[in-house]
Amino acid sequence: MHTLIKGGTVVTAEGERRADVLVSGEQVAAVGERIDAPSGTKVIDAGGAYVMPGGIDPHVHMELPFMGTVSVDDFLSGTACAAAGGTTMIIDFVIPAPQQSLLEAYRIWRERARKATADYSFHMAVTWWGPQVFEEMETLCREHGVNSFKHFMAYKNAIMVDDATLIASFGRARDLGAICMVHAENGDLVFRMQQETFERGIHGPEGHPISRPPEVEGEAANRACQIAGVVGVPLYVVHTSCRQAMEAIARAKLAGHRVFGESLVQHLVIDDAVYRAKDWRHAAHHVMSPPFRAPDHQQALWGGLQGGTIEVIGTDHCTFRTNQKAMGKDDFRKIPNGTGGLEERMSVLWHHGVRTGRITPSEFVAATSANAARIFNIHPRKGTIAPGSDADIVVWDPAAHRTLGAAAHHSRNDFSIFDGMHVTGAAAVTMSRGAVLWQNGTLSPVEGRGRYIERPCFTDYARSQTVRNTHCAPTPVERQEFVP
Ligand code: URP
Ligand code: ZN
Ligand code: ZN
Hints:
Blueprint: E1 2-12, E2 15-24, E3 27-32, E4 42-45, E5 50-53, E6 55-60, E7 65-66, E8 69-70, H1 75-84, E9 87-94, H2 102-113, E10 119-125, H3 131-144, E11 148-152, H4 163-176, E12 179-183, H5 187-199, H6 207-210, H7 214-231, E13 235-237, H8 243-254, E14 259-264, H9 265-269, H10 280-284, H11 295-307, E15 312-314, H12 322-325, H13 345-354, H14 361-375, E16 393-403, E17 422-432, E18 435-439, E19 442-443, H15 459-468, H16 476-482
Helix pairs in contact: 3-4, 4-7, 4-15, 7-8
The structure holds N-(aminocarbonyl)-beta-alanine and zinc ion (ZN) (2 copies).
Residues 183, 238-239, 289 line the site of one zinc ion (ZN).
């Protein structure tokens, strides 16, 4: 089965050019001017449109058991709403309970994800430490294609880890050639500030940002960056929301550490005024961590994206309906943390980023797809349009107008934090490994068509870092593995 995407401007992270794209089966067969397609080829007219690699959102949580409830989008609704917005791959997080086997949790998440309509992969969260975790990290890397390990520095008494666990896990990941990730907030400080805020009589959602100021994030981001630098493991800092955390990432990069920054599209365009809303529901739906920040932090994030401190714009899509948010009606500490954005991400970034001249179409592709593919080691299979790459393609109409909101989105959530936002630029066609999932405003999800994507480790990088970091030398057992 062939499809010819004809007459568009092909954009990759490297540049843009007028070209046709021939898709054969699940892969790109050719990219070039005026391709003659075999007879019977289906033609998609891309005149006036951009033809870009499908988006990759490396930070989502589908049907996540969290804070006493479960996030409402599952792997089918989540990957479907992703496709409606031009995103063709998600990377979710397996989050084992403390003391739970990582492999057991991995199998549970694999089972949940079987219904996905587009491709997916998993980061593994390290929520506790012991010999079993040490062993299972290797099995995950070698046998299951998991090359990224996430650490929550917040959510005390739940999934937060201390510095000792961070250091042990970072060292293990380094030796395996994996990358580490952190949710950077000082969880002890948050815990204390939450208590103090509540005791001062502030019980509503406005207490959430008060208990998680930018300094709390900046401190943890700096600590994680410095520890990763000493240990010698690459680090990816998720949902960077403030200037302090950005500066920590920038300092680490300047010091020569392999550190990457992610921000969320939500944090680029929404500020902390939302917590001052009279309507409890409105404010509660914006409770996420880190919280929305004052506008000067947004300016810093845009600067970070333009200047290269931030490589990836994700969403941390983790949605809860109003009845779930109401679990914290009388206590902001009990409002399930999370917001959505998977469907809106590409349009919002295009509108506020490309149309304002802050970033170019190529930089847009880098931030929404190519950089995540490179950092998590699935490039050039994903994140580009080239012969042999998966035909995950979005035909992007830069002139299409949309008004965002819960009535228009495909998420199961009953609220949209983008409600009423007008955007220009939208996915006209979204193709996942050669199959059209979204066209002319119609979704055609196929339950179970999505595939699990394995991501191999960076073994040579691990070897070089083990040699380089003599001040953090591996244990004798680990050393044997790397002595030629
Ligand atoms: O508030 C958030 N971000 N919820 C999802 C879990 C996480 O911290 O990423
Ligand atoms: Zn987080
Ligand atoms: Zn998250």
